[in-house]
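Tokenised fold entry reproduced for absentees:

. . .
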Amino acid sequence: MSTEAADVQLIKKTLGVHPGFPKEGITFLDIFPILRDPLAFETLITHLLHHITSHTLPELAPAENKKIDVIVGLDARGFLLGPVLALRLGAAFVPVRKGGKLPGKTERVEYSLEYGKDVFEIQADSVKAGQNVLVIDDLIATGGSASAAGQLISKLGAKVLEYLFIVDLPFLGGRGKLDAPSYAVLAAED
């Protein structure tokens, strides 16, 4: 078994699985057990950093800035992972929040959910034109929130290099809605 496979197996083994939550027919995948286990949390962060440095950055064109300038974390679990990655990469951390939660001038995007609409906002001066951005969240399902974050970053003139997730639910097709490549540590079955 490769080191990467061992990393993924530890992360998968530590992930909480709660059938029937929040309602019957749904299985909730819980990242909090990973955060409670220092070895699993460090393994997750190291795995993501390895992916960024061995895949994301080398794929940039030679003339491009081969640096991550900003890590954007999505409300709310992206806030738990993003600052750690940003610190290790020497990048800024910027939150994307639900509407009405950020002070100052903001950019906003409305997006569709399975059951309605929601709004994401980013502070207008938080990301500069031309910066390289990674977006992180715990899970991608239908892709609505990640896609909205990408639209906000684009409005500010920056470039999303990649979307990062711990878990992908491929049967919901969310990755197909994104404007840049994506990477998930794990893919969940239906």
In short: The chain has a mean pLDDT of 94. The longest strand covers residues 159-168.
